[in-house]
Structure formats: structure tokens, C-alpha cells
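Input (structure):
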């Protein structure tokens, strides 16, 4: 019986894990579990009316505490 692997989270790491599992010499059944409404986690892209795509990338600064607030002030 083939293995089943559950990947929790559809962020970039979860998507990469699914990709590499599916390309294995004897790939298991891969089940991706994502709670949100879209894949990619913190990575997001938007497309303007003229077709230009803006990649917003992951959020690099998570403003928590005094250090986060000071970083945002820079």
C-alpha cells in the first residue's frame, strides 16, 4: 500500500515540500492542508489592469515590541 504524506501549510515551504515529494522515485500520495483562502503564505502577487505583476514577497519585518516599532520608523 502506498504511503500518504500530509503537508501542513501551503506557504512556500509547504509547496516546495509537496513538489519534492511528488518528484520522488516512488512518490507517496501527497495531501496538502491549508487553512487560508490562498496558497503561498506570506508571498503574494498582484496584477494591475495593464497586466503588470507586482511580487510583494514575504513580510520581512514583523513589528513586535520596541525593536519592531523602531525598525518600522527607519
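Output (sequence):
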Amino acid at each position: 500500500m502506498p504511503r500518504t504524506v500530509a503537508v501542513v501549510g501551503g506557504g512556500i515551504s509547504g509547496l516546495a515540500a509537496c513538489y519534492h515529494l511528488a518528484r520522488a522515485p516512488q512518490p507517496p500520495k501527497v495531501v496538502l492542508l491549508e487553512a487560508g483562502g490562498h496558497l503561498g503564505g506570506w508571498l503574494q502577487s498582484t496584477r494591475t489592469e495593464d497586466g503588470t505583476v507586482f511580487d510583494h514577497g514575504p513580510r520581512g519585518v514583523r513589528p513586535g515590541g520596541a525593536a519592531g516599532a523602531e525598525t518600522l520608523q527607519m
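Notes: The first helix runs from residue 12 to 22. The chain is about 25% helix and 20% strand.
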